Amino acid sequence: MSDTPPESSESPADFDAMTRDIAEVPAVEVIVTVAVNLMSAAAVKLGLAPQEGEGDKYKDLDEARKLVTALAGLLDASATEISSFHAAPLRDGLKSLQLAFREASLVPDEPGQGPGEKYTGPVYG
Asked: Roughly what angle, to the nearest 10 degrees, separates helices 84-104 and 27-45?
């Protein structure tokens, strides 16, 4: 048995091309893309899967809490870096996820104690 890791299917040239591609993407686009991915993952973990009847299959409130908190932290940290044009719909989506989390919880968190609320403040319906 060998101690060397398996060879990657990507050559160094492929890595260089990926690095150049990333370098050409504006930071705002990267932030928004990461935020949308966090939102999508949180929605699935909240049981909001788009396929009817599939929601509970992927529901995991512990995982959803982590994703919503990470999203809130990202939006809080990047608020001055991205324009209101980008930030407003992301904040709306975050609030919707926070409210969905509260609704999905058997024992809802106290106001201000829900996922991401240390960054956003208490969220009310």
From this structure: 10
- pLDDT, tens only, 58-85: 899 999 999 999 999 999 999 999 999 9
**Contact assessment for residue 67 and residue 40, using Cβ atoms and an 8 Å cutoff:** no
What is the C-alpha to C-alpha distance for residues 125 and 123, in angstroms, rounded to an integer? 7
Q: Is 3 left (phi over 0), alpha (psi -120 to 50) or beta?
A: alpha
How much is the pTM? 0.81
Report phi then psi at 7, rounded to 5. Answer: -65, 140
pLDDT tens figures, 16-48: 777 778 889 999 999 999 999 999 999 999 999
Residues 6+ positions from 28 with CB-CB distance below 8 Å:
81, 82, 83, 86
> What does each C-alpha distance from 4 to 1, 7, 9, 75 come to in angstroms?
9, 9, 15, 40
In contact, 76 and 18? CB cutoff 8 Å: no
